[in-house]
Write a structure and sequence with these properties.
The chain is elongated and about 70 Å long. Helix 1 packs antiparallel against helix 3 and helix 5 packs across helix 6. It folds into two domains: about 80 residues; about 70 residues, no CATH class. It is built from six helices and no strands. The protein has about 180 residues and is mostly helical.
């Protein structure tokens, strides 16, 4: 089982991972679980696990090998539940009636089907929106530290320059196809 660390206050902590990284971490932990479980051999041959047990003692781990296996199982279960919940939350998110989400999804879907260079078209649209707002930073100002903001920032600044030097070129006209 998961063990508490000395002086832990069990305060809520939140991290954000994209689905790909969360899946990679889960797979990694499952592989480690499998290797450790194989070392332990379900407890039937603990001699094979002696080097692993010695290594845990050497690093002053609070875990025994079976305890570590159980903790890994708990962590992978928590990650799987978090990933499942995130997917169900993201599917529910567009259902909000904010007046622009559904029309935007419809417009983006149509443009992705019609535009020869959808990525270039989208970069132009975002640059034009930034110009209307007065800066590229205005697009991400409400959540500047998120991974989504970072990627959006790369796309927009790659289009209008890292100091918005090309921002005046985007005056709201339609991007050429």
């Amino acid at each position: 089982m998961l063990l508490s660390q000395p002086h832990s206050t069990y305060q809520l902590a939140e991290i954000s991972l994209d689905a790909g990284h969360a899946n990679d971490i889960t797979c990694l932990l499952l592989d480690v679980h499998t290797v450790l479980d194989h070392l332990w051999l379900d407890g039937t041959q603990p001699r094979a696990s002696r080097p692993a047990e010695q290594a845990l003692r050497f690093i002053n781990s609070p875990y025994t090998l079976p305890g570590l296996i159980t903790a890994l199982d708990q962590v992978t279960t928590m990650l799987a539940h978090a990933a499942r919940d995130a997917v169900s939350d993201s599917r529910a998110a567009p259902a909000t009636d904010d007046g622009y989400t559904r029309p935007t999804i419809d417009a983006l879907t149509q443009a992705a089907s019609a535009e020869t260079d959808f990525a270039g078209w989208l970069a132009h649209v975002l640059a034009t929106a930034a110009a209307r707002l007065g800066s590229s930073d205005a697009l991400t100002s409400r959540r500047p530290g998120s991974w989504e903001a970072s990627l959006l920032d790369q796309l927009v600044k790659g289009t209008i320059g890292y100091h918005d030097e090309l921002l005046p070129n985007y005056t709201g006209h339609s991007p050429s196809a």
